[in-house]
């Protein structure tokens, strides 16, 4: 039976645990949570696991780890996990847009003999984009459209009047690298499109606050030697965090199951 370290026990972390808690192949969860929320996390984990405050000096070595804690946590925790030889699945893909981060993670993987997995998260179509990359891509565009409430508490609030939007408003146009750095809680998907396709600096991103949006909408448009791709997903957000689509949690669950299943899809 596997032991999984789960870094971050917010909207996504709790949903991942809820979906996998009764999987008989998982014996124990080690949940990294801040001291002030440790009691609450302990209560939710019950007999399934324990709360830890650091990824160093763990009494039980996890078989692999999952990060869903944010960019800062990815930078501080994930290299240490990888250096210890612990394979890690990450949600906060946008942190790879920070200067030197890809090289740092790559070095940590090599030092520990570990593998880092970036999940598609709330996106659809990453498989085709990544497969098409080697035959040559001509253009890749990503458009993120969310209701104004999903942009509250982000840099979007200073770029448009989220409280009083009457119509869809494009408040950001730039590269995937710029988007990921400016919107760490909302543009991990933009970074994923960049990393899977033409690169963070060659991928064009538009971000939209739309009072009429029915969910968190992610559209990838790509052209290349492979042909043309247009994929849109309109995802329901977590009630506890409207910035995050529930599909992002499901994407992590899929990655975890793919480590446990004999046949991988
Ligand atoms: N790839 C994708 O499609 C998506 C990726 N994401 C990424 O996933 C992350 C998590 O999303 P979500 O669950 O919705 O966010 P939440 O804010 O709901 O949960 C994150 C949790 O992690 C905790 N945390 C942060 N840093 C640390 C740390 N160093 N040690 C222990 N706990 C920590 C936070 O605590 P505190 O609030 O005190 O900081 C919070 O409880 C996002 O920040 C984003 O980077 C999100 C959506 C989609
Ligand atoms: O969950 C989503 O809709 C996407 C998201 O927030 C992100 O990529 O950071």
From TrEMBL:
It catalyses: L-aspartate + NAD(+) + H2O = oxaloacetate + NH4(+) + NADH + H(+); L-aspartate + NADP(+) + H2O = oxaloacetate + NH4(+) + NADPH + H(+). Pathway: Cofactor biosynthesis; NAD(+) biosynthesis; iminoaspartate from L-aspartate (dehydrogenase route): step 1/1. It is an enzyme of class 1 (oxidoreductase). Residues 166-253 form the Aspartate dehydrogenase domain. Pfam families: Asp_DH_C (PF01958), NAD_binding_3 (PF03447). Residues 8-116 form the Aspartate/homoserine dehydrogenase NAD-binding domain. It comes from the Bacteria. The keyword Oxidoreductase applies. NAD(+) binds at residues 122, 188. Gene3D superfamilies: Dihydrodipicolinate Reductase, domain 2, NAD(P)-binding Rossmann-like Domain. The active site is at residue 218. Keywords: NAD, NADP, Oxidoreductase, Pyridine nucleotide biosynthesis. Its EC number is 1.4.1.21. InterPro entries: Asp/hSer_DH_NAD-bd (IPR005106), Asp_DH (IPR002811), Asp_DH_prok (IPR020626), L-Asp_DH (IPR011182), NAD(P)-bd_dom_sf (IPR036291). Belongs to the L-aspartate dehydrogenase family. Specifically catalyzes the NAD or NADP-dependent dehydrogenation of L-aspartate to iminoaspartate. The iminoaspartate product is unstable in aqueous solution and can decompose to oxaloacetate and ammonia. This is L-aspartate dehydrogenase. The gene is nadX.
């Amino acid at each position: 039976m596997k032991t999984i370290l789960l870094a971050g026990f917010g909207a996504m972390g709790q949903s991942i645990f809820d979906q996998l808690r009764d999987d008989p192949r998982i014996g124990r969860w080690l949940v990294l949570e801040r001291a002030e929320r440790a009691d609450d996390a302990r209560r939710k984990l019950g007999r399934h696991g324990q709360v830890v405050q650091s990824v160093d000096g763990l009494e039980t070595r996890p078989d692999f780890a999952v990060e869903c804690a944010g960019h800062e946590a990815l930078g501080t925790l994930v290299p240490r996990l990888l250096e210890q030889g612990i394979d890690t699945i990450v949600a906060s893909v946008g942190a790879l847009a920070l200067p030197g981060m890809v090289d740092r993670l790559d070095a940590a993987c090599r030092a520990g003999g570990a593998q880092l997995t970036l999940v598609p998260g709330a996106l659809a179509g990453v498989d085709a984009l990544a497969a098409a990359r080697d035959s040559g891509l001509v253009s890749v565009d990503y458009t993120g459209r969310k209701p104004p409430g999903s942009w509250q508490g982000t840099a979007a609030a200073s770029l448009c009047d989220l409280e009083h939007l009457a119509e869809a408003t494009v408040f950001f146009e730039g590269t995937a690298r710029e988007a990921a750095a400016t919107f760490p809680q909302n543009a991990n998907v933009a970074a994923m499109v960049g990393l899977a396709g033409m690169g963070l600096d060659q991928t064009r991103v538009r971000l939209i606050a739309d009072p009429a949006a029915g969910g968190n909408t992610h559209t990838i448009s790509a052209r290349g030697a492979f042909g043309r791709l247009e994929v849109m997903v309109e995802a329901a957000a977590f009630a506890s965090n409207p910035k995050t689509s529930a599909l992002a949690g499901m994407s992590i669950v899929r990655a975890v199951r793919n480590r446990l299943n004999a046949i991988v899809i």
